């Protein structure tokens, strides 16, 4: 009986083909969140969209790192089949011919996910798409910021450290001066295949300029954001000397009030961001130059903070 049905189906299809019908699979695309949080109650919905034109769907299969974990074959009863996915489960109530929902993920399920769609007979046209998903174990606490001092005199260098607890993957660290991002330490070479948690660390040196530097006309631009790359693959603990090379350096003309605040933010993709307690930093004593009116009322000081980065200097010198 079933065989008969299949043959009829096939004949119908062949007639349709002769009739000029097309039943190819087109526009297959996969949509997977770049990152999701791990743990109980967390979930990821992976979608696959496609255009079968005049064909029927034969099957849709989902793989993680080449291992199939979900299959939907509308001709079968029941149409869904689930294979073990250690470290998570598939929510069958919200999985079908265009999406699969995975719940309670473990970070070891990070990796590439594939969706494979096959059109029905006679052509069984098949296509596959892949996208990465990272299951994030965020740091337990907010980043910790420490400063060499919380007041300064012109010409001083302020040193700051920001450290972040272990997490998967290693977080990036961004430095924020008042409301401006001024520098970033990017964690890279974190192998997606070893699922180790790693901490992150960033060092910043801020050189406080004398007021005369206003006259150079240097201003903060976002292009001056400097980055350091943290080699997390080998672990910074093993190569402490490497840290020194990765000090971020900033040059700052303090705002007229003499006060600014510094904080750091740990981020993991767009799914986790946590800021340290901001630390206010004041000028030691009123600046003597204010007597001449050159300090706080200088013509170029229109906003709260004028930040000058070494990068901007370099660019400027280069163009001269
Ligand atoms: C689908 O594919 C066709 C060509 O194969 C293209 O012209 C069309 O823009 C695509 N549609 C979408 C929604 O991507
Ligand atoms: C920052 O970290 C370095 C290296 O661990 C340490 O030598 C230095 O004293 C720290 N500085 C501050 C202000 O915490
Ligand atoms: C860190 O920043 C880099 C560069 O912007 C980005 O490619 C990477 O995905 C970020 N890593 C995390 C864990 O957010």
From TrEMBL:
The keyword Transmembrane helix appears for this protein: yes
Annotated keywords: Disulfide bond, Membrane, Signal, Transmembrane, Transmembrane helix
Pfam family, one: V-set
InterPro entries: CD80_C2-set, Ig-like_dom, Ig-like_dom_sf, Ig-like_fold, Ig_sub, Ig_V-set
Ranges for domain Ig-like: 40-134
Gene3D superfamilies assigned to the protein according to its UniProt record, in alphabetical order: Immunoglobulins
Membrane topology listed for this record: Single-pass membrane protein
Signal peptide (residue range): 1-24
Keyword Signal carried by entry: yes
GO cellular component, one term: membrane
Localization (cell): Membrane
Top-level taxon in the UniProt lineage: Eukaryota
Record-given protein name: Ig-like domain-containing protein
Lineage: Eukaryota, Metazoa, Ecdysozoa, Arthropoda, Hexapoda
